[in-house]
Amino acid sequence: MADLRFDGKVVIVTGAGAGLGRTYALLFASRGAKVVVNDLGGGRHGDGSSSKAADDVVEEIRRNGGTAVADYNSVIDGEKLIKTALDNFGRVDILINNAGILRDKSLVKLTDQDWDLVHQVHLKGSFKTTQAAFPIMKKQNFGRIIMTSSNSGLYGNFGQANYSAAKMALIGLAKTVGIEGARNNVYCNVIVPTAASRLTEDILPPEVFNELKPEFIAPVVAYLCHDSCQENGSVVESAGGWAGKVTLVRSNGALLRSSIQDGVTVEKVAQNWDRITDMDKAGTFGAIQEVTGALIENLEGLKTSDVSQAQDSPDVFDF
Ligand code: NAI
Questions:
Q1: pLDDT tens digit string along 132-147?
Q2: What are 43-88's pLDDT values in tens digits?
C-alpha cells in the first residue's frame, strides 16, 4: 500500500505540547502536513500557562524537516486557534480536539470550579474550535475533526464525575457535527485512547504504563483524518497497538402494552424487567431515524393486535 500522506493539509492539534497531542503533531508533520501546535502549557489541573510546551514540539518538528507553528491560546478561545492556522498557512483541513485537564474528586467534594473548568476545556473548547473551523471546512468540501473521549465517559469512573460527563458529552457533539458536515465531506469521529502520559502516570500500573505509548494510537487518529477514510460519527477506542469501534447497543426490549387501547402499569414493567434488560438479541442503531422507525413499527404492531383483549384493560394512563 502506498504511504498515506497529508501533503498540503493544515492540521490543528490542541494540547499538542505533550502526551498524545504531541505524538499526533509529530506524525502529521512527518507525513507532510503543516501543523498548528496548540498548547496553553499549563498544569495538569488547568493551572498556569507557558509557551514552552508548544515551542518544544514546534522545534522538534522543524528539526525533523517538517512545518509547524506554535499557538498558546486556550482552546476555550477556539476561534483564535483557527485564526493562527489561517494567518500562517491560509487554510485548515484537520482539527484534533485533544487538549485536556483533570480535576478528580468524588462527587460530593467537587466544587463548581472543578466542574466548570473541566467542562470548559474539554467540551466548550472542542465546541469553540469546531464551530470556528466548520464553515471553512464545509466551504472547501473537506474536513476531518476528532473529538477525544475516554472510557471514563463511556463507563464512568470513581472520582471523575466532572470529567466523565464532559467526555461522554463529546460523543454527542461529534455525532451531530458528523451529521451536519456529511454532505460537505466534513467528518467527525471520536478517539477513546488509553496512553502513558502525565494524565495517567499515577493511575496506570508501571508495567502497563510502559506498553501504552501514544505512538500506538496516533496512526489510528491519522487514518481517521485521511481523505481516503470515509468513517463518520464513529467512536474508536485504541490502546497499546489495538483499535476497535465502540457503539451503543439496545436490547430487543419488551412491549408493555398488548393493544393500542392498553396502558402501562408499574407491575407490567416489573413483570417484563427480564425481557427489557435481556441483551441476548441486542442490536445497534446507526441513526436517530432508525430508532424512530423501530418505535413506529412497535406502534403499528399494537394497532393491528387483538382489540377485544384490549377492552379488558382500559387503563390507558394508569399511573
Ligand atoms: P497530557 O496532559 O499529556 O496532555 C494534554 C495537553 O493539553 C497538555 O500539554 C496541556 O498543557 C494541554 N492543555 C490543557 N488545557 C489546555 C487548554 N485550555 N488549551 C490548550 N491546551 C491545553 O494528557 P494526554 O494523556 O495526552 O491527554 C490527551 C487527551 O486524551 C485529553 O483530552 C485526555 O482527557 C484524553 N484521554 C487520555 C487518556 C490517557 O490514557 N492518556 C485516556 C482517555 C482520554
A1: 999 999 999 999 999 9
A2: 888 889 899 999 999 999 999 999 999 999 999 999 999 999 999 9
Give the separation between CA 72 and CA 101, rounded to whole angstroms: 16
Residue nearest to atom 12 of ligand 1 (CA): 15
- Does 5 fall in a domain? no
pTM: 0.94
Domain finish residue from 246, 275, 303: 246
181 lines ligand 1 (CB under 6 A): no
163 is catalytic: yes
| Same domain (yes/no): 264, 165 | no
pLDDT on residue 313: 37
Cβ(251)–Cβ(222) below 8 Å: no
Q: Are 282 and 251 in contact (CB under 8 A)?
A: yes
Task: List beta partners, residue 71.
Answer: 38
C-alpha 199 – ligand 1 centre gap (Å): 7
- For the chain, where are the E strands, in sequence order? 10-13, 34-38, 67-71, 94-96, 143-148, 186-194, 235-239, 242-246
* Pairwise CA distance, residues 233 & 170, whole Å: 11
Residues 259 and 273 in one domain: yes
Strand pairing partners for 243? Answer: 238
Q: What is the pLDDT of residues 273-290, one digit of tens each?
A: 999 999 999 999 999 999
Whether residue 34 is found in the same domain as residue 70:
yes
> Does ipTM exceed 0.95?
yes
Indicate whether residue 148 lines ligand 1 (CB < 6 A). yes
Task: Name the residue range of residue 253's domain.
Answer: 248-319
Ligand 1 pocket, residue 84 CB under 6 Å: no
Q: Which residues contact 103 (CB under 8 A, 6 or more apart)?
A: 45, 46, 110, 113, 114, 117, 118, 162, 163
Residue whose Cα lies nearest atom 31 of ligand 1: it is 100
Question: Which pLDDT score, from 0 to 100, does residue 267 have?
Answer: 97
